[in-house]
Amino acid sequence: MTITVTQLNNYIRGLFEMDGVLGELSVCGEITNVKRAREGWYFSLKDDGGAINCFCYGSNANEPVTGTVAVVEGNVNYFVRTGSVSLFARRVTATTNTGAAYLKFIELKEKLQKEGLFDEDRKKQVPHCARKIGIVTSETGAVIRDIHDVSLRRQPFTNLILYPVKVQGVGAEQEIAEGIAYFNNSDVDVVIVGRGGGSNEDLSVFNSETVVRAVANCNKPVVSAVGHGIDFTLCDFAADKRAVTPSEAAEFVTLDVEREKVRLRAYLDKISSNISSKLDQNKQRIVYDCKVLQMGIDKRLGVMQNRVVQCLSDIENSAKHKYEQISVRLDKTANKLSTLNPASILKRGYGYVSAENGVVKSVNQVKVGSNVQIQLQDGKLDATVTRKEANKK
């Protein structure tokens, strides 16, 4: 007989509804994986042998606390649409006991914290433009696809190197630690350790001391991308950076090239605009300075021109004055010369006598009977000395 999936699930649900034990029971276990919902809370109830998903309305109980042991009263439901089993809690009563797994988690956390593995001052700077990224995760999960898609979309030149590991189950701790150690001795720029979301049990490998110490001892920057936003592991505390999702981890270590191009273009446009504005301002300033300089030169030239004109005027006045002085002096000299000019004396009726031995200035220079010449104003006379007489002293 062949039936559909829905028919099978309806049959199974009928079995659950007819079972008297599953309709009303109390279950004791450790609360894990608490997640807030609009109407109440989703959580898991577990012990050493197994776990079951639970849901309770907010009005039925206080908020479940991870790590506490509680008694859950309710009924088991089988959901036809998903083929899953869930314990619908009508009441959740916490006991005074604390779950062994939670105590172990807290104990290890306090131990590693005292050793300084979670200290902020030991965390390394995570690069925002890593060219070579080492990834420690499963090769078949969505984590590697998300990191691959986001990294190459944002930064096409990114070189991604996968170290495939199991992310839960036996041997997972050692594989993850070996993957981190492998990249520690490589030339990658950063290491991403990650896996998708899951229950506390699914993520427990990332709370192991082996993995946490491998992350803390890695010389390369490590980004932890374990679970989703509400999930926290010790690996997150030891890593240099925690990402809410693997996609966010890829965003942390890569550059959005297209966005940077837009930002760079805007920056260059701004620089170009500033340069143009500065050039315009400097041009206006130069034009203004040239005008001021020209005005200063014109003013200076005007002052110098006035000085030259004044100097020429002073020279002209001085020359005129000097000329007048010289003219007066020349007139005096001319008058004096005119007075001393023999011709002038001759005009007044005087004459001068010369003999063979020159001008006769004394009667003693000639003898009676000597021939002499008498120079008058308008001519000469030849004469013979017939008598001479000296003046009495």
Characterize the structure shown.
This protein has 393 residues and is α/β, with parallel strands linked by helices. 44% of the residues lie in helices and 25% in strands. Strand 6, helix 4 (142-154) and strand 7 form a beta-alpha-beta unit. The radius of gyration is 63 Å and the shape is rod-shaped. 22% of the residues are buried. The mean pLDDT is 86.
Provide a concise account of the structure shown:
With 393 residues, the chain is α/β, with parallel strands linked by helices. The chain has helices at 5-18, 20-23, 100-114, 142-154, 172-184, 200-203, 209-216, 234-238, 246-253, 257-340, 342-347, and strands spanning 25-36, 40-47, 50-57, 68-79, 84-98, 132-137, 159-164, 190-195, 222-226, 241-242, 352-355, 358-359, 371-376, 379-384.
Relevant terms:
393 residues; alpha/beta; 5-stranded mixed beta barrel; 5-stranded parallel beta sheet; 14 strands; 44% helix; 25% strand
Summarize the helices and strands and which ones pair or pack.
Layout: H1 5-18, H2 20-23, E1 25-36, E2 40-47, E3 50-57, E4 68-79, E5 84-98, H3 100-114, E6 132-137, H4 142-154, E7 159-164, H5 172-184, E8 190-195, H6 200-203, H7 209-216, E9 222-226, H8 234-238, E10 241-242, H9 246-253, H10 257-340, H11 342-347, E11 352-355, E12 358-359, E13 371-376, E14 379-384
